[in-house]
Amino acid sequence: xxxxxxxxxxxxxxxxxxxxxxxxxxxxxxxxxxxxxxxxxxxxxxxxxxxxxxxxxxxxxxxxxxxxxxxxxxxxxxxxxxxxxxxxxxxxxxxxxxxxxxxxxxxxxxxxxxxxxxxxxxxxxxxxxxxxxxxxxxxxxxxxxxxxxxxxxxxxxxxxxxxxxxxxxxxxxxxxxxxxxxxxxxxxxxxxxxxxxxxxxxxxxxxxxxxxxxxxxxxxxxxxxxxxxxxxxxxxxxxxxxxxxxxxxxxxxxxxxxxxxxxxxxxxxxxxxxxxxxxxxxxxxxxxxxxxxxxxxxxxxxxxxxxxxxxxxxxxxxxxxxxxxxxxxxxxxxxxxxxxxxxxxxxxxxxxxxxxxxxxxxxxxxxxxxxxxxxxxxxxxxxxxxxxxxxxxxxxxxxxxxxxxxxxxxxxxxxxxxxxxxxxxxxxxxxxxxxxxxxxxxxxxxxxxxxxxxxxxxxxxxxxxxxxxxxxxxxxxxxxxxxxxxxxxxxxxxxxxxxxxx
Length: 502
Ligand code: BES
Ligand code: MN
Ligand code: ZN
Fold this sequence. Notes:
Layout: H1 3-6, E1 8-9, E2 12-13, E3 23-28, H2 31-35, E4 41-47, H3 56-66, E5 77-81, E6 90-97, H4 101-115, E7 122-126, H5 132-145, E8 163-168, H6 171-199, H7 207-217, E9 223-228, H8 230-236, H9 239-245, E10 253-260, E11 269-273, E12 275-279, H10 299-314, E13 319-329, E14 341-343, E15 349-351, H11 359-370, E16 377-382, H12 386-392, E17 397-400, H13 404-417, E18 421-423, E19 441-442, H14 450-459, E20 467-471, E21 477-478, E22 484-485, H15 490-499
Parallel strand pairs: 3-8, 4-6, 4-7, 7-8, 11-13, 11-16, 12-13, 15-19, 16-20, 17-18
Antiparallel strand pairs: 1-2, 5-6, 9-10, 10-13, 14-15, 17-20, 21-22
Helix pairs in contact: 4-5, 5-6, 6-10, 9-11, 10-15, 11-14, 13-15
The protein binds ligand BES, manganese (II) ion (MN) and zinc ion.
């Protein structure tokens, strides 16, 4: 991605999102060396079974534990200013309990939060018991907890963490975690890109800008990108996708990304990301409160871009295709109306009973397009339904697949990357409500099981290949004081893809 591609919008310089990416370094650093290490803050992750040495930090740990100043509960911490014998002005001792990856993530997040007010530019995180999973968790937690969005708020740059040293006590341990560290930093980069595009307001993330970001990715090794506009999309017969876009003066884009890391004969995995850059609901207009959050309705698309960013960094021997249908969903005199019937690329006609169920209308044509790649699997990723948020909240994404193997592999990838999902059903009875007197299918059923009926709609367009659908409506962003994109499910997707290597 080039700085120049991001350009200026409404006179606001949008900068280069890579400015906000921190530099991770893996180093041999035992606690003795950490005490003399030149950095703004040292964080020490302490498992229950920590064996103190004779160095100043170990002695502090022993004293703190003896005085009950440092509880052995995950995330409990002691923050010390100018600790005796420690060069860094701040020392944070934090408990990780038995040291599961999730505990390590919780503890690391707490430590970074404790340092927020000090605003460190560089930190060292010492892991006396570092393993692959724990190092992966630390890199993820540090980059998540210290992420700042600066594109439309350049003043936030002042609080950026620049350098992170992950320290393990011996060279053997460093060597043992090296590959996990590489994966984790590549993932952090991909997640940061997904967050960047997710967080951008819709006037800084139009379909055209999203397409330019994808073209920027194609400057990297093994990545190609093709961008189709309204004419090409019409020619392909994507009447459903085009119908959603017709209410906006922003032209639609259909983005085709290809990562070729294996022989051309190897069947690719296709990722399809929903790219609604703003969802007003269209003529079936959404209520006003909270509508700003519908700028996040392209987080599926952003997760595809983020996954390609990570693939570019890792260069695995697999083939991956990314498809992104992207447009705005707006009300206007040209807009799609409730009751309109459109013809999808598959030939199936669709009665649009609710223009706010637009995600499935753009995805169905992308799914039909996916067939030409003779894929080994197709996974679509979409902020598809409010109903999925009601079902699973913000913890797990909804997972749908008729294939047990694919569902199992995605579940496992979610666990591995701590980017969780949960399988929901696809029984044929759920499709009952999608019947229409005026078209092959309606775009909405009743209120009941809304996440499932949306998936049933998509399934009609995914009959020719193994398929899974991830509803990330609850996972893709946070609301409230911490409002912002999460970069999910880049972790899940990347881990799934890396495992698919034969
Ligand atoms: N983008 C929304 C889904 C959404 C809503 C995600 C709220 C996160 C929070 C989607 O396009 C939509 O509007 N879905 C409708 C479907 C309904 C009309 C059947 C919904 O969920 O309300
Ligand atoms: Mn909608
Ligand atoms: Zn939407």
